[in-house]
Amino acid sequence: MVNQRFVPSVTQLRVFLAVAERLHFRSAAEELGMSQPSLSQALATLEEGLRVHLVERSTRTVLVTPVGHQLLPFARAAVGAMDAVADIAAGSGGPMSGDVRIGVIPTAAPYLLPGLLPALSDRFPDLRPRIVEDQTARLLEQLRSGALDVAIMALPTDAAGAAGMPLYAEPFALLVPAGHPLDGRDDLSLEALVELPLLMLDEGHCLRDQTVDLCRRVSAPILGRGGSRAASLTTAVRCVAGGLGVMIVPESAVVSESRDPGLGVARFREPAPGRTMGLVLRTATADDDAYTELGSVITGVAQRLFGAVPA
């Protein structure tokens, strides 16, 4: 039976959420900026106060217990509510002041951040952005747990407790090795993917999922014929330049990588496939006008850097 006199702290709940997400104590501690002993002590105090075991620990694995899984959605809701209270209480400075934790997917961060960070400094001089680059699913978990304030990712997302604000759209193109027969084409059809050695990112990247969807539309081999895959888009681009295959990439990557003499570009005929990028927030803070202004800054940077179209 739960001790009715025990009330978990927000820090303890954040620790539980981080451990449940990462299933690794050191990674959870790094995410929260804590030492591992402090994190372990906070979780132990929470379990002692609740009189339940939330996770099972061994020398190699960490597992969430059944009761831990039952409590996860309530812990997320409690942390989200407390963050909303803090956001409203800090109204004098507004949400665009102090530390703001911004998540960005890996297929956007290298191309958007070089222009975005200076623009944020100009528009919000009191803002101290804290950038977290990670895959979509993990960004959403961190957003719901309160470890992030906002996230920049591809839409749509159907995550509970999160709301997406469309920012900009960008088309996809096909990166090919320089001198490839398709280099310079601007009338590419999706059917061309059927015979190409298509490179893929690892599981978990939304760009991989979008590429798989395009392949399925024309019955192209899902894994392509390249035999290579990469954990990051920048590594995959280097593989293309080295002649290991071709790859579907967003326009932002094309603009950034176009100076590489080892790369060529083929563009799809209209209407070209593409993606819509958005700003994702917890639903409790989604109506704040400051985030709308933040979204406008991001959209403006994307327009300037790689000709994105406002969504």
Automatic annotation (TrEMBL):
Pfam family for this entry, one: LysR_substrate
Gene Ontology cellular component terms for the protein in this record: protein-DNA complex
GO molecular function, one term: DNA-binding transcription factor activity
Stored InterPro entries: LysR_HTH_N (IPR000847), LysR_subst-bd (IPR005119), WH-like_DNA-bd_sf (IPR036388), WH_DNA-bd_sf (IPR036390)
Record's protein name: Probable hydrogen peroxide-inducible genes activator
Species whose genome carries this gene: Dietzia natronolimnaea
UniProt xrefs under CDD domains: PBP2_OxyR
PANTHER family tied to this protein: HYDROGEN PEROXIDE-INDUCIBLE GENES ACTIVATOR, TRANSCRIPTIONAL DUAL REGULATOR HCAR-RELATED
Annotated family: Belongs to the LysR transcriptional regulatory family.
Domain HTH lysR-type stretches: 8-65
Annotated keywords: Activator, DNA-binding, Transcription, Transcription regulation
Recorded superkingdom: Bacteria
